[in-house]
Structures are given as structure tokens and as C-alpha cells.
């Protein structure tokens, strides 16, 4: 069985990053492309609940996007609203994604991982995940979870099976 190539959109949530300084968005893009997927959209928005929700809603609606990866805004500061913006858009939440991310992340950053409100789910046959804004967290999320779960050949199950 050959691997299914997915169309992925990457959203960076930040008040300070630009296309030149967005190392986290670039990390997700490079990991996705290295695994044979296609990044069809990439954008940076400010830490604003409605801006985030507008972009993610539009991407969920597009039939040619199967995956939306969002980096940034997952902490507990007043400006960290990414999970709050995204969760109402999800038809099904995947609790194990955040649980597993924090478990794996614990080995890297210790108890600080409890301050990560990582979230994932499915909406309109689109997989949506929020990931912390650090480049290291994006690498961890990709290598520990996303690489396998976005591979249609991974058994006994994968997220690709939920997108068709």
C-alpha cells in the first residue's frame, strides 16, 4: 500500500513573528514535506481569538485541505487563546493527542509541560492540531505523534483513516 499524500495548512499564531522569523511554522512545513505531504497554505496571525477562528474555519471548510496545524498561543498568558479559538470548531476532540504530547514533552522540559494546552480534533473531515510555539515543541509533536498518525500506512490506526 502506498502512502497517501495529505494537503496541510500551517498557521502560526504570534504578535511578533514574521515570515522571516517564523522558525516554528517553517519546522512544521519542512517536517511535513520531508514526510511526503504538501503544504498548500501557510499564514501568520496575531494572538486574537477571532482572527485565529476565521482562518481555521476557512481552512476546515476547504475540501482540498485535510490537515490544519497551528503553532503558538497554547500557554496560559492572557494572549494565549489558540485552544479557546479552535475547540468550538471541532466536531470531535482527540484527548489523547494532548495527553501524549505532554507525556513525550515531559522528557524534554520536565514539569513545564503542564502549561501546554495542546489540543487536537476532527472537523469536516479535517484533522486540526494546536502545538506550542517553540520550534522544539513543533519538532517533538511531529516526530513523536504526527509523522506516524498522518501516515496512512501506520497501523493499527491513524488519523488519515478519519479524513476520508
What does this structure look like?
This protein is of the alpha/beta class. Helices cover 37% and strands 20% of the residues. It is built from five helices and six strands. The protein has helices at 23-34, 49-61, 82-86, 95-109, 135-149; strands spanning 7-13, 38-45, 67-71, 92-93, 119-123, 126-131. It has a six-stranded mixed β-sheet, with helices on both faces. Strand 5 (119-123) and strand 6 form a beta hairpin. Helix 4 crosses helix 5 (135-149).
CATH topology: Molybdenum Cofactor Biosythetic Enzyme, Chain A
Number of beta strands:
6
CATH architecture: 3-Layer(aba) Sandwich
Q: What is the rounded distance between the termini?
A: 16 Å
SS field, number of helical segments: 5
Mean pLDDT: 96
The H/E string reads EHEHEHEHEEH
When the domains are counted, the total is: 1
CATH class: Alpha Beta
- What's the arrangement of strands in the largest beta sheet? 2-1-3-6-5-4
Radius of gyration equals 14 Å
Give the low-confidence spans: none
Q: Give the biggest beta sheet.
A: 6 strands, mixed
Shape descriptor reads globular
Determine the strand fraction and express it as a percent band. Answer: 15-25%
- Per CATH, the superfamily is MoaB/Mog-like domain
InterPro entries: MoaB, MoaB/Mog-like_dom_sf, MoaB/Mog_dom, MoaB_proteobac, MoCF_biosynth_CS
Function: May be involved in the biosynthesis of molybdopterin.
Keywords: Molybdenum cofactor biosynthesis
Domain MoaB/Mog: 9-153
